[in-house]
């Protein structure tokens, strides 16, 4: 399936490039920006867990169920790839429908609220709807992660429901998972909203 092939997506603020082992040190530095692994509602790997997380995502890529990206800022001086700020993925890929979930996303604390997240979502959603031809794109998050739920809702995604006692967190506690989706007929309005948000930031 061609849409499972690693690719690079370039936006206004960020470049999404195929995850690779050589990104390890940059990802460790990005996670240390805010000590993101200490946030109880996220699954950001600690520095000593980053290598294993990269390998886990690449193994899922080899199986065809995930397409992982490293997120970089665009260097304002060159217009090319700048420093690494986080990770994101297409996951739970259903090639037959086709359908994807956008998730396992995190960004360094210092760039949160600067437009990097809506920019990466615009890139991933545009590719999913306009290139892959997905009839729907899904998002999932912890019921108690209100920041993530609000961010997903701001995209224009609709809440489908809550999967109760759906999975366990790193410390073994059962979590409720909130499921959102955007349907293909909703995409033009969602795209316009994201483009407007990014244009206001310049």
UniProtKB/TrEMBL annotation:
UniProt-listed Gene3D superfamilies: 3.40.630.30
Domain of life, per lineage: Bacteria
InterPro entries with a match to the protein in the record: Acyl_CoA_acyltransferase, GNAT_dom
Domain N-acetyltransferase: 14-158
UniProt keyword Ribonucleoprotein present: yes
Annotated Gene Ontology cellular component terms: ribosome
Record carries keyword Oxidoreductase: no
A single MF term (Gene Ontology): acyltransferase activity, transferring groups other than amino-acyl groups
Keywords in alphabetical order: Ribonucleoprotein, Ribosomal protein, Transferase
Protein name in the entry: Acetyltransferase, ribosomal protein N-acetylase
Biological source species: Arthrobacter nitrophenolicus
Taxonomic classification: Bacteria, Bacillati, Actinomycetota, Actinomycetes, Micrococcales
